[in-house]
């Protein structure tokens, strides 16, 4: 995992939000701290409410989680259990 802050661009409700993700922070935590409108519920990868599309970059996400293999192959991630490995662009649900 990176030991430095990483940039994330989060596309939500027609707006682009530039967020800094601190080491150890999830994409959901960083987005909410920056007041990005993000849907979420369980915050543990079990419900899928925060499901979002990763448009660019790579993340590491906690397993197991509720994403199907098909969803993961299509580029969906769960921000509540995902941490960036590099700069990312994410189309957030909600």
Walk me through this protein's architecture.
This protein has 94 residues and is mainly beta. The protein has a single domain, classed as Roll (Ubiquitin-like (UB roll)). 13% of the residues lie in helices and 33% in strands. The chain has 2 helices and 7 strands. It has a 5-stranded mixed beta sheet. It has a two-stranded antiparallel ribbon with strand order 4-6. A hairpin with a 2-residue loop joins strand 1 and strand 2.
Structural key phrases:
94 residues; five-stranded mixed β-sheet; 2 helices; 7 strands; mainly beta; globular; two-stranded antiparallel ribbon
Compact description:
With 94 residues, the chain is mainly beta.
The CATH superfamily is identified as Beta-grasp domain
Number of strands: 7
Structural class, by secondary structure, is mainly beta
**Main β-sheet, spatial strand arrangement:** 2-1-7-3-5
Cα Rg = 12 Å
The CATH architecture name reads Roll
- Major sheet size, sense and barrel closure: 5 strands, mixed
Residue share in helices?
Answer: 10-25%
Measure the end-to-end span. Answer: 27 Å
Low-pLDDT regions: none
Order of helices and strands: EEHEEHEEE
CATH topology description: Ubiquitin-like (UB roll)
Task: Provide the number of structural domains.
Answer: 1
The CATH class turns out to be Alpha Beta
Mean pLDDT across all amino acids: 94
- Which word captures the global form? globular
């Amino acid at each position: 995992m990176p030991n430095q802050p990483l940039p994330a661009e989060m596309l939500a409700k027609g707006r682009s939000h530039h967020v800094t993700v601190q080491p150890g922070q999830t994409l959901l935590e960083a987005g909410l701290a920056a007041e990005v409108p993000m849907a979420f519920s369980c915050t543990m990868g079990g419900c899928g409410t925060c499901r979002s599309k990763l448009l660019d970059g790579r993340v590491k996400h906690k397993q197991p989680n509720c994403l199907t293999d098909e969803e993961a192959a299509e580029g969906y991630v769960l921000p509540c259990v995902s941490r960036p490995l590099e700069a990312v662009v994410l189309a957030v649900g909600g």
